[in-house]
Design a protein that fits this description.
It is built from nine helices and eight strands. By secondary structure, the protein is α/β, with parallel strands linked by helices. The strands form two sheets. Strands 1-5-7-8 form a four-stranded mixed beta sheet. Strands 4-3-2-6 form a four-stranded mixed beta sheet. The radius of gyration is 24 Å and the shape is flat.
Length: about 325
């Protein structure tokens, strides 16, 4: 009996460069399908164009072939292994870039207290549509941000009629959370996946966060906070206002459409580059095909060279004079 085609129209997923599309799978098998991938599950068989995917999230009960991973990697798609409903993040595949230029720049800016503070202040200011007084202290910026987020929740609650009692959820018992907190958590995990893909594909580190710290995804949390109020909060409240059935699935679907229409991947990549712009002169080559440099106490030396093949320096004659 031939496989049944799924009713999901994956062909409508946008191009990677035009905004990010992501796909979350559970209890499925992923194989290569020519230059694309094929998803097999209880709903049937679906061909997914790899070039249209930015992030593939593999939940419980999924398996993927080596050929499928190769097809995804060659198209710059990030692959994440996650827990049920994105409650856990386990691992991620390599991003699109092979250059460490941006990562090294991020590390230097992160390690310097002056530039670290400048990045933190830039990230807070990027969250506001209006310009803020450049003389505001970090504590004042943090306070303004707290007010902004509180107002975003209050406005969404008033507009949709969904009661808001505050952000409260228990990872150990998902069912204990109220519907709006479950919607926000499920949507946040998807937003984290988008930001993770943008960070890794741009050659930055997910661990070197400037506001958040101490986690492998600290910089992912930093980046996601730039877009939560505009993208996640209204989507989550609207989904719960419509129905409390299948909240997690519906919020992922609605958020994916919002991410696509807002061209969020393009914004993430541009915002990341703008965040670090102008703080130091770029000293690294864009050509990732060239061998990397080798660290030396007197500065970097060229890579791709067997220094054992170089002519040994002629030792100076010993001085036998008394």
């Amino acid at each position: 009996m031939p496989p049944v085609k799924s009713t999901i129209n994956y062909a409508e997923l946008p191009k990677f460069r035009d905004g990010l599309s992501y796909l979350y799978l559970e209890h499925s098998k992923v194989e290569q399908d020519q230059h694309s991938i094929a998803v097999l599950n209880e709903d049937g068989f679906s061909s997914v164009p790899a070039a249209s995917l930015g992030v593939l999230m593999l939940g419980p009960g999924t398996s993927i072939t080596h050929a499928a991973i190769k097809a995804l990697a060659s198209n710059g798609c990030s692959v994440h292994w996650v827990g049920e409903e994105h409650q856990r993040f386990y691992a991620s595949g390599t991003g699109e870039t092979r250059s460490s230029r941006n990562l090294l720049k991020q590390a230097r800016l992160w390690a310097n207290p002056a530039t670290h503070l400048e990045i933190v202040q830039r990230m807070y200011r990027m969250r506001f549509k209006e310009k803020l007084d450049p003389n505001l202290t970090l504590e004042q910026l943090r306070g303004f941000e707290g007010v902004r987020v509180r107002e975003a929740y209050a406005n969404a609650s008033q507009e949709t009629g969904v009661e808001w009692k505050g952000r409260n959820y228990n990872r150990g018992n998902w069912a204990d959370s109220d519907p709006i907190n479950r919607a926000l958590s499920a949507g946040a995990a998807s937003l984290y996946g988008v930001c993770h893909a943008g960070i890794v594909s741009s050659g930055y580190s997910t661990a070197l966060g400037f506001i958040h710290t101490g986690k492998q995804l600290s910089f992912v949390y930093d980046a996601a906070d730039l877009y939560k109020a505009e993208n996640l909060i209204p989507v989550a409240f609207n989904v719960v206002a419509e129905s409390e059935e299948k909240i997690e699935t519906r919020v992922r679907t609605a958020l994916r459409e919002t991410i696509r229409s807002n061209k969020l991947l393009e914004r993430v990549v541009k915002d990341l580059h703008a965040l670090f712009e102008g703080l130091e002169e770029d000293e690294f080559s864009d050509d990732a095909a060239k061998p990397g440099a080798i660290w030396d106490i007197n500065g970097e030396v060229s890579g791709g060279t067997n220094y054992g093949d170089l002519e040994e320096p002629t030792p100076e004659p010993e001085d036998d004079s008394e």
